[in-house]
Design brief:
The N and C termini lie far apart (36 Å). 38% of the residues lie in helices and 19% in strands. It has a four-stranded mixed sheet. It has 120 residues and is α+β, with helices and mostly antiparallel strands. Part of the 50S ribosomal subunit; part of the 5S rRNA/L5/L18/L25 subcomplex. Contacts the 5S and 23S rRNAs.
Length: 120
Amino acid sequence: MSLNKVERRARIKLRIRKIVSGTAQKPRMSVFRSNRHISVQLIDDLNGVTLAAASSRDKEVAEKVAGLNKVQVAALVGKLAAERSVQKGITEVSFDRNGYLYHGRVKMLADAAREGGLKF
């Protein structure tokens, strides 16, 4: 019996989360992608705390999205996430693509975060 799209992503997500975990020094950078928006959180899994976050719904990004496609918006979110994490003293993260393919918006977000100063 074949899996539907949600079940397939859930399986991939569990397979990734067995390996990727975050600490206070090297948090997990978790990406969530919906049809309209994209968001990212830097999570300390040991304490269960979100250290920093950025989304396409944040004011700083929402003002700039007019006329941009979703891939370009993902790049803005990646830069904002990197900016906020560097302000908090976080420079190294573990990237969690959350079951999504490393392609398109997820890849653009990761590349922009690297340009912003994050290492992963």
